Amino acid sequence: MALFENIVAECSPVAIVETGTYIGTTTERLAATQIPIYSVENNPRAYGFARNRLWRRRNVHLKRGDSRAALRAWLNGPLHNYSGGHLLFYLDAHWWGSDLPLNEEIDIIFSHCSKAIVMIDDFSVPFDDGYSYDDYGDGKVLAPAYIEPAVRSFQLRAFYPSTPSAKETGARRGCVVLVREASLIQIMESLPLLRAP
What we know:
alpha/beta, 19% strand, globular, 8 strands, Rossmann fold, eight-stranded mixed sheet, 7 helices
């Protein structure tokens, strides 16, 4: 979470979008920033739990449904006016059944917003095997090869945690941060908690 908080501090996003609310633990921490939070959860039970947990948070806009549909609705609706500012996306909706929406989410985001900052959770860190990541079988491993078509298509730059996994606490889950705009690339290059492969 320190990396995420560092990105928020350096980039001053006008809104944070989370896919995969689950029970709202991360959402609650994001809400403490007082930045508008848009979060979507597909699982009815998890959504109900998160809604009860977050109902007092006035800056949280919680939606139940498919992450791709939610991203389209938000980017064509309430987040459309924010498209000139930095939007921070935290993608964590990649565990529901056999459906892996990640590449479509990236496509939707960068088709609408060139100033997006996308952090993908549970992602392989290519130079540090100590970070764990999600593997859903053939062609569905959260690793650089999976997102390569989107990286190439949108000319994205990828950054990974620079902290060695051995020095991390907790679950030691990997992540990747994707950006496109030149000023955001410069910011990511300047952050000591990130490094390019």
